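Slide 14.
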Amino acid sequence: MSDRLLAIDIGTQSARAAVVTADGEILGIAQIAHEVDRPHPSWAQQRAEQWWEEVCEAIRRVLHETAVPAETIAAIGTCGQMHGPVGIDEAGNVTTPWVQLWCDKRCQEQVSAVQSERDEAELAARAGSPLNPAWTGLKVRWHKDHEPEAYRRARWFLVPKDFINYRLTGTAAGDPSEASGSFLWDCRQEAYSPQLADALDVDLAKFAPVHRSHDVIGAVTHVAAERTGLRADTPVVAGGGDFPVSMLGFGIVGTGITADVTGTSTLLATHTPKPLIDPTIQNLRHVVDGWIPFTILDCGGVSMKWCRDLIRGAAGRDVDYDELIAAAETVPPGSDGLLFFPYMSGERRRENTAARGGYFGLTLSHRAPHFTRAVMEGVALAMGKDVRTFRQRGLRVDRICSVGGGTRNALWNQIKADVLQCPLELSEEPEAGLKGAALLAAAGVGLIDDLATTARQRRAAATAVRPQRAAAAAYQAVQEEFIRIYNHMLGFWPPVTDRQTTCVTND
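Slide 15: predicted structure.
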């Protein structure tokens, strides 16, 4: 059997395909960028058909650029942005052209309805996470309420990677990592729950059968082979959500490590045998055994992009990240009292789903570099708030592995280490999602025997950033002030419901 694998990643900002060897070497990557459509506050959507077109193009391109013959691809593994339900009918036609993304919060009205009718604590104990608009099941309920015909016609509701797998194989299949993010999965029974489906008022029969993430669910059809350039009958595994798959690719497997994953969002996550039940903590099944308790800041990494675009627009010229960071380095820890509130897309906590971002403590002495440093500090302080919650729940947090695009910002790394008062180990693995997907594919066809052991063995070397004593001491007081403002602002922004927006038509 060949050791060549195809990994696919449907991200928020791009669709990518890579050829990867069974020992983890990436031979080539093809990437096609796409945008997020935001027609209303708290909405974020993309078109499923566009993902498929992009994936087909990316596969053709990477096979051509690497000169890897399609017949040598042993298996395919897919990961993707999580929680976005795509309705398809019996013939495979999309019934919901606009897909609600993971950060879309339009279904707050449905969340509120469930909260008013049911015992939320009881539901959360069963689902393993608190209710919030991110979960796939609530988004499907929104379609039922606002697009009943699209809901009725849908035979399946598939998340992005499952939709791509369906187009590749003709098989509707899910995996535990995504199923656990639906608020329909019973964390105690490890199965879909009729009780949770009844609470959300959705039909469980519209959710695909669940397989282990490395199980082969089908093979590339002749139609898909013509579109992609792949060999028909190439095995495809179930795959997983991009976050758990990236955890696998980074080697964040087993207890004792907390991960800072800063890309578009910022996540703090660890690996435990069972969910960690807390109103401010969410849990997803790992793509190996066990669970991932985590917190998420939707506007973590993207806050820096927003800051750059803002300053670039004000300056009337191109401004790159290096220039921004160099200016921010001239500002002392704490940004002379300026605090940034990094919740520009709200957050998943029920009291704060409609939150907005903001600067606090502005004075006439603050200049542009203060605003940039405050953005980096605001994200780190939000992380510090969540680390405190982890510790209060009995988790040891004395080792943090920082992964994702955010690790390229040296100043930000130092700020995080100082705020968290903990060494930050910077992973040198830039492509964990693709490598994790390839690991799943390799396991599915027997090229590796033990996913968890292999992932740990391949964990990339890390460079440690240690807290600076003076800065860490200064940030202690800043952290307390951040938490004071955070607690004061809880519930300040009332949830935005669909009664306050105009529904986008699916044309």
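Speaker note: DSSP finds 17 helices and 22 strands in the chain.
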